Amino acid sequence: MKKLILAVLVLLTAAGTALYLSPAAQLAVYQGVEQWRAGLHARSISVNDLKVSYYEGGPQGAETVLLVHGFGADKSTWLWFARDLTERYHVIAVDLPGFGDSDRPNGSYDVGTQTERLAAFVDALGIRRLHLAGHSMGGHIAALYAARYPEQVTSLTLIANAGVTAPRRSPFFQRLEEQGGNPLLVDSEPQFDELLDWLFVAPPQLPERLHQYLAQRAVADSAHQREVFEHLRDRYVPLEPELPRIQAPTLLLWGDQDRILDVSSIEAMQPLLKDASVVIIKGCGHAPILERPQESAADYLKFIDQASLQAAEARRTAPRQ
């Protein structure tokens, strides 16, 4: 009860304070409150001369969950999803190099390079085993990681991941191929509203000043995001040859109304995976971790709890060396 009262006081104080702040400060306050509610702390580490920022929370001695964000996003997209994980798991949500508060190195942002950067980050933190989850581009990277480092991955969760050719073309790819223009790149404030419509079935209702600030920030970052997208496209790594190398049990989680990456991608992946489970969330778009965070987290927790039990049983029954 004391924790609940404290939470209410913090939220009321933050809400009252935010009325008098700039939009940037409002966003910082809001994310700070959500970070606190999720039990996460902002940290950074130097990896191969790059600053890599991340959130960390949960019991240090517990099994590690590593969360990898998608294109144009950052670690904050996991705040609402992670809230239900930190009670029992050691949770890390990373800003990939080029995103969020991490450094933006010269060179490549293709998924192959980012996978090796992620491996170096994991090694720098001294993590030996983990539950790995990625959304969209982050799912593409997570799948490559699980294929390249199978001995490290207890479970893999791919949330609306890129990297496979879906049996049905999504509206996003139809737009790219037939009309040109990339809805994920925001070159004007009105295009920010279009982006939200592409990502969500029910776009979040934002205060006007904050909405305008986020739109302006997206426009200012458009050139960098365009560069990243070009690297992803020009140095594309298909997952189909990689998926059979994944040893970990894998959860494929999708929104049934995803307009970016069609849910039929599951049909392409499931036969190639050794141990695949599927969850499809009805009435949800491309970002279940934002649009339906509690439902997504509940499905995820159920999956990794079972994967942990399976891994423990495998260790118990393994022949002694």
From TrEMBL:
The species this protein was found in: Pseudomonas straminea
Signal peptide limits: 1-20
Keywords from the named record: Signal
MF terms (GO), sorted A to Z: catalytic activity
This protein's GO CC annotations: membrane
Top-level taxonomy: Bacteria, Pseudomonadati, Pseudomonadota, Gammaproteobacteria, Pseudomonadales
Alphabetized InterPro entries for the sequence: AB_hydrolase_1, AB_hydrolase_fold, AB_hydrolase_sf, Epox_hydrolase-like
Ranges of residues in domain AB hydrolase-1: 64-293
Keyword Signal assigned: yes
Protein name stated in the entry: Pimeloyl-ACP methyl ester carboxylesterase
